[in-house]
Amino acid sequence: MAYEIPCWFMRGGTSKGPFFRAQDLPGDIATRDNVIMDVLGTPDPRQIDGLGGATSLTSKAGILSIPTDGEADLDFLFAQVGTADATVDTTPNCGNMLAAALPAAIEAGMLRGDNGRTTRRVRTINTGVIAEITIDTPDGRPLYDGDAHIDGVPKPAAPVSCGFLDTEGAVCGTLLPTGNAQDHIDGVAVTMIDNGMPVLVIRATDVGITGYESHEQLDADTALKARIEALRLKAGPLMNLGDVSKKPIPKVTLVAAPRDGGAICTRTFIPHDCHAAIGVLGAVTVATAAVMKGSVAFDLAQGSSGATRVLSIEHPSGEFSVELGFDGERVVRAALLRTARLLMRGSVPISPSIWRGPNA
Fold first, then answer.
1. pLDDT of the residue at 307
2. Cα separation of 234 and 24, whole Å?
């Protein structure tokens, strides 16, 4: 008989995937990853035999635990799961799935919500970044219905406020891994930057496109994808990431001047498929590049001034607003709005050939 694991299937921002309690999963990492792939149906480009949605946005998982060091209220380990490839990568952050971590923890009985609104400090174990997450919790339970709208999600929902501190260099070790706001790889001007998510920023026109194409058009452009992948592979070691041929980072964001009233227009690859929108921490990092003198994005961007600046990041399905807080010239805080929803709660059976449970 198959062993079953409790599972809370959540949408967070423009992503979705199962959330697990760490205590319910195997302690051995290799076995744990095999369990997660079994749940999602990886490897298979359709993920027909699992809960995965056959795209990078819907092939994700979250693992929750309660920390004992007093630095955070909840620990969240994000897993980016391959579709056709048998991979589970816990290197990057995912701000979208992070938005679902607090309501998932309350649903799972790991934390108690306050009466009205609940704010908790959630640490992404992948990078050590801590975010203050605030959700509506009437009677202590997560509220999902509301009128907050984010592009890329068809229905409005209750707001999830995410405030990030000290994201600079979360993965690469420093905001600008090379020390430069602009470098050249194979003759192409690039900005290699990490303010919570490692991103290789490139002007769209420098790789032969306008930057206003649909994500479907860009997904079908195999020559473009091969060119930016070659740039990405060379950027990996320069960003202190080593060989990135099998890693989802750095992301590649092609930038153009805004055309819908925003700060900058973006097309992001994650890393081989064009994102229908843009990731949370990817948007924070690109917004940081847009206000950084000397970056490839700076001269294209329409920005504002002051200690607090709101930048609207245009993407294929709309826009994503990021609020940046400055201490002099340095970005020290980022805040943004997401939504989340519980899609399913229950248990998922694990193939006995993968894991028979802790007492087998």
1. 84
2. 39
The CA-atom distances, in angstroms, between 29 and each of 6, 79, 107, 254 are 18, 12, 25, 35
**0.90 exceeded by the pTM?**
no
Give the position of tokens 């704010």.
119
* Residue range 318-346, pLDDT digits in tens: 998 898 988 877 888 898 999 999 999 99
Residue with tokens 């060989």: 243
Domains of the chain (ranges; CATH) run 3-167+340-350 (3.10.310.10), 183-332 (3.10.310.10)
pLDDT digits (tens, 9 = 90+) for 144-196: 999 999 988 999 999 999 998 778 998 999 999 999 999 999 999 999 999 99
Q: What is the pLDDT of residues 271-305, one digit of tens each?
A: 889 999 898 899 999 999 999 999 999 999 997 77
